From TrEMBL:
Signal peptide feature range: 1-16
GO cellular component: extracellular space
One Pfam family of this chain: Peptidase_M14
Protein name per the record: Peptidase M14 domain-containing protein
Keyword Metal-binding: yes
Domain called Peptidase M14: residue spans: 119-415
Cofactor(s) the protein needs: Zn(2+)
GO terms for MF: metallocarboxypeptidase activity; zinc ion binding
PANTHER family from the UniProt entry: FI02848P-RELATED, PROTEASE FAMILY M14 CARBOXYPEPTIDASE A,B
Cited InterPro entries: CARBOXYPEPT_ZN_1, Peptidase_M14
The organism's place on the tree of life at top rank: Eukaryota
């Protein structure tokens, strides 16, 4: 806590890191899905969601435009029949406002436990908390030191089981978070899931399922998002050509499923750069190996992302459904309904659907790869961003972890009823 606070204050004082976004505008842009989709590699989509008020197929995206990009793109939007609305004329101000809130939240948080549910923490504190959980619940929790990130941080995750993964009749559920660096609120959701399981909030889910939970898959990117560029999304690797200018890989394009099939993802400077080869990123290999370890009995995989209130299922590289598309939809709707019951009144309900149909085509995603290697239920789960996008204020963490736990618990019950051997 103290180190987190010190870190924020220090950085605020010594270098104003949000300056790079001084004068950048934030726009909401909506229109025909194919046109919006074609911009994915050219502009930084802060979010993409089906447009709320449409009968035909429309997408709405939140994008940032530098003054130069604005000159180039606004005419393009007009010419192509896209609607747009200015959300903010200075992104740097939004980031500064977020930062002062974060400082306040960490001052107000109580100091009795390492982490609380009303602040964000740096990677060191998150990994320390994971170790503490392991020490406190040695009978059910195994902390895995899974390997080093590109910059050398030990990636830790937990396995939770009442019989050390030795009862082969039990289904396994794998959850990851923090693949995209700037999506901070995903880690608290994973950590809260761990907390609920080990403290016995739902005995059945602890007893009948073996859990693999990876709360912070991309610590390098996360630290970079805290310290240097709040909007950083990728890893921080520099093993590809062009990495001096454009380091990092989009972890959720780095999986070996139709990897390398979309030219849009092959440019190192693109926000969706897929990497020099499938599984080039050590952080993504950690997820791959955790998934493969118990593959035959793994029934559900969820990758936590932010934001947009969606459960997206395969496929993403084409718009057809896997053979169990109906079941994927049904289980997704169950989870979504459980969340919607607890959501904030003003928030939109979850959308459940095929990734390519709801949004646009993607290749190399964890959701598609995990489905392709045989896990029946695999989803990308986009948490709420309200009007803040991924700058979700810490005051909303409790809401998001509580409603998401309800959704994940419902998914787990579905798994027990349908996949217990
Ligand atoms: C928690 O500790 C920090 C210093 O470590 C202190 O500034 C803060 O006031 C404390 N918060 C409470 C609620 O005691
Ligand atoms: C922190 O711990 C102290 C001493 O154990 C206790 O009196 C206090 O109520 C706790 N504070 C919170 C916010 O839990
Ligand atoms: C979409 O991809 C899946 C998985 O590779 C494949 O089985 C299916 O035939 C493809 N559908 C179309 C319409 O190409």
């Amino acid at each position: 806590m103290a180190s987190w606070l010190a870190c924020l204050l220090l950085l605020g004082a010594v270098h104003a890191r949000h300056e790079q976004y001084e004068g950048h505008h934030l726009y909401r842009v909506w229109g025909a899905t194919p046109i919006i989709g074609s911009l994915e590699d050219k502009l930084d989509f802060l979010s993409a969601t089906p447009a709320a008020i449409s009968t035909s197929k429309q997408l709405e995206v939140l994008i940032k435009l530098s003054p130069k990009e604005k000159e180039q793109w606004l005419p393009y939007f007009l010419e192509n029949g896209l609607d747009f609305k200015l959300v903010s004329d200075n992104l740097a101000n939004i980031l500064r406002a977020e930062e002062s809130q974060l400082v306040q939240a960490s001052e107000e948080a109580d100091n009795n436990s390492t982490i609380t549910w009303d602040a964000y923490y740096n990677s060191e504190t998150i990994f320390k908390y994971i170790d503490e959980i392991g020490e406190k619940y040695p009978d059910i929790v195994t902390v895995v030191n899974a390997g080093l990130s590109y910059e050398g941080r030990q990636i830790k995750y937990v396995k939770i089981s009442t019989n050390r993964f030795e009862n082969l009749r039990k289904p396994v559920i794998v959850i990851d978070a923090g693949v995209h660096a700037r999506e901070w609120v995903t880690s608290p959701v994973a950590l809260y899931l761990i907390d609920q399981l080990v403290t016995g909030a739902d005995k059945e889910l602890l007893d009948e399922i073996d859990w693999v939970i990876i709360p912070l898959a991309n610590p390098d990117g996360y630290e970079y998002s805290i310290n240097e560029d709040r909007l950083w999304r990728k890893t921080r690797s520099k093993s590809h050509e062009g990495s001096d200018e454009c380091p990092g890989v989009d972890g959720n394009r780095n999986f070996d499923f139709y990897w390398g099939t979309r030219p849009a993802a092959s440019n190192p400077c693109s926000i969706i750069y897929e990497g020099p080869s499938a599984f080039s990123e050590p952080e993504i290999r950690v997820i791959r190996d955790a998934v493969l370890e118990n593959l035959p009995r793994t029934a559900l995989y969820i990758s936590l992302h932010s934001f947009g209130n969606m459960f997206l299922y395969a496929w993403g590289h084409n718009a057809s459904l896997p053979s169990n598309g109906l079941v994927l939809h049904l289980a997704g709707v169950r989870m979504a309904t459980a969340i919607d019951r607890l959501k904030l009144e003003e928030d939109t309900p979850y959308t459940v659907g095929n990734a390519a149909q709801v949004l646009y085509f993607t290749s190399g995603t964890s959701r598609d790869w995990t489905r392709s290697v045989g896990i029946p239920l695999t989803y990308t789960m986009e948490l709420p961003g309200y009007e803040y996008g991924f700058l979700v204020p810490p005051t909303y963490i409790k809401q998001i972890i509580t409603e998401s736990w309800a959704g994940l618990a419902e998914g787990a019950r579905y798994v027990i009823n349908n996949y217990y051997h």
